[in-house]
Write a structure and sequence with these properties.
Layout (H helix, E strand, L loop, with lengths): L8 H5 L6 E4 L2 E7 L2 E6 L3 E4 L6 E5 L8 E10 L3 E8 L10 E3 L13 E4 L5 E6 L1
Antiparallel strand pairs: 1-4, 2-3, 2-10, 4-5, 5-9, 6-7, 7-8, 8-9
Length: 129
């Protein structure tokens, strides 16, 4: 087995922690007001009990011209450091509406180059296939 180069300290401390990532079978659309920010048929569904499931959308399916990167960041001991973007069409309500792990820990590389949105800041429509 290959040695992990950038292991998550959270999994090292808590090896029983389970985070699953699987394809979402359907279409995900993200809107700020009437403006579509993202549409994807290749989103991923991340499950991390006891938290709500989160849809991660590939960067290629996100309209970054509708977003502005902010200085805000957070750290997760399982995923890594998250960067944030504001949804410009939503004004102040869209501040830090999207986050992404641009350099996630090795165990979470499936969500690299994917963004997730806060449902309290934008509208997320997930339509199963």
């Amino acid at each position: 087995m290959d040695k992990i180069a950038n292991p998550a300290p959270g999994f090292q401390r808590n090896p029983d922690k389970v985070i699953t990532i699987e394809p979402y079978h359907g279409t995900v659309r993200v809107r700020a007001g009437e403006t579509v920010i993202a549409t994807s048929t290749t989103a991923k569904l991340l499950s991390e009990p006891p938290y709500a499931q989160v849809l991660y959308i590939p960067f290629d399916d996100i309209d970054f011209s509708r977003l502005a990167k902010t200085e805000h960041s957070t750290h997760c001991p399982y995923k890594g450091d998250a960067s944030y973007w504001s949804a410009l069409p939503a004004g102040e309500a869209g501040k830090d509406a999207m986050w992404a792990y641009e350099r996630p820990f090795d165990e979470m590389t499936e969500i690299r180059n994917h963004g997730a949105f806060y449902p309290s800041k934008v509208t997320i429509e997930a339509t199963p296939a």
